[in-house]
Amino acid sequence: MRNFVLKRQRKRFYGFIAVGFIASAGSSAAWTTLSKVLASHQRDRIPGDARQMEDPRGLGYNVKQSQTAIGSGGFAGKGYLEGTLTKFKYVPMQSTDFIFCTVGEEWGFIGTAFVVILLSALVLRIIQISDRQRSRFTRIYAYCVASIFFLHLLINVGMTIGLAPVIGIPLPFFSYGGSSMIAFTILLSILVRLDAERLSNLR
Questions:
Q1: DSSP string spanning 131-156?
Q2: What whole-number distance in Å separates Cα of residue 115 and Cα of residue 173?
Q3: Are residue 11 and residue 54 in the same domain, yes or no?
């Protein structure tokens, strides 16, 4: 029995090594392919590009200013409308795509943590709603809504701190703009309605 367990663990370990090797090889191949397929202005948006670090006033200006604004907020922030970089508009698109850096400078680590926890709780609540659905369509729709909110949160926060490409994805219910607000509201409204239909079918 013990030998059987050891063999299973050994196979699992070898499996992890194989997956890691394939992933590293795949990422290298993907980067080589993207370098040939993407245009120069598209390659400039990929994070970690050396040209962004060498040109903080050009290609990496938005991300550099965003990182500086978030870092200057410290733990508790500078206060509402008291952020130096955001108040004098040193950060481009600070009310739309880079709204997270405004929160970081004015409210600090406490404010950014609150925003991330709040949106994460929304995603977890949507997943909880999806798990209790009897209809396959409603369950898949709920998972799609949770994925949309999660990816928007992940990419928007990532691009403001330099870990994701700057692709103009808004932060749900925080970024300024009517179209994104309407779209997110419609997604949640449909989900609430479908969940209400589930409750009516149980009666």
A1: HT-SSHHHHHHHHHHHHHHHHHHHHH
A2: 10
A3: no
3-state secondary structure of 95: coil
**Residue 9, φ and ψ in degrees, nearest 5:** -65, -40
Residue 5 in this model has a pLDDT that exceeds 50? no
Residue 98 has pLDDT above 80, yes or no: yes
Of 5, 156, 194, the residue nearest 66 (C-alpha): 156
Q: Report the number of distinct structural domains present in the chain.
A: 2
203 pLDDT more than 70:
no
**Total-model pTM:** 0.68
Q: Is residue 170 part of a domain?
A: yes
Which pLDDT score is estimated for 29? 60
Q: What is the C-alpha to C-alpha distance for residues 172 and 15, in angstroms, rounded to an integer?
A: 38
Structural domain of 2 = 1-37
* Residue 43 forms part of a structural domain: no
